Amino acid sequence: MQAAASMSIAPTGAALGAEIRGVDLARDLDSETFGRIEEAFDRHGVIFFRGQTITVEQQIAFARRFGNVEINVNTQACLQGRPEVLLVSNVKENGRYIGLADAGTTWHTDMSAYACPPRCSILHAIEVPRAADGTVLGDTIFASAAAAYDALAPELKSRLEGRRSTHSYLAKMMARKAAVGLTREVTPEHLEKTPPVAHPVFRTHPVTGRKCLYVTEGECIGIDGMAEADAVPLISRLHRHLIDPRFQYRHRWRVGDVLMWDNCTCQHLAVRDYGESLRRLMHRVTVNGSVPF
User: Fold this and answer.
1) Number of folded domains in the chain?
2) Catalytic site includes residue 268
3) Is 108 a catalytic residue?
4) pLDDT at 247
5) Are strands 18-21 and 46-49 parallel, antiparallel or unpaired?
């Protein structure tokens, strides 16, 4: 049993993010240790553990401490026999990608076009791409939606308080296709499971109570009570404010990293600065959340 005494928390110094040290996720966590981890997660929005050697079953078990596990709509990209695990990878077998190669390649928060978006996503780095000179590629950048809200102009806070924005999975995929291309197929089944849904422009974190800016350019197609010609440019303005570098933390991956992010508190972008010849393989497990308010 892992004891809390061995654990420490090292904030990144950025607007979000902290490293959890002295914890082996292959061991059972006592309630005090897990409580400190969960508290750090709610506070920092992104937490990560370096040098972990865990099985798929251990990753799923850890995720279940935070809530029920979500099965991704892209079932063709899930680990065979373990649909709880989504493969995020550019690796091909028999001429096809074994997972989602385009996952996260534009700014987003996971599955926001669901009526009940996930609480968090947990990524385990199995293979990390490296350039010929040894430089690690494929960073992930996170932006604090909470810090972005705090820094928003009072006039905009007043104007948009209580309003809702419409999130569209189809719009998200088409925007990503136009920006960087898609390696997945958007099927009628996907669209049937993900009809457009309205969420608050300013979402409240269910644990901390912090307000978070909850809109994404390209995915959000309107704001209630506003003409589309006014809403779409405003969504773009809000999103560009959210991803300002002053609100960011950039994670440089190492094999064995286990990193998790809060889908209310932050948005993220997977940097695709590597080619098909450099392998990247991540195991992602997603935990159900609550209806945004």
Assistant:
1) 1
2) yes
3) yes
4) 98
5) parallel
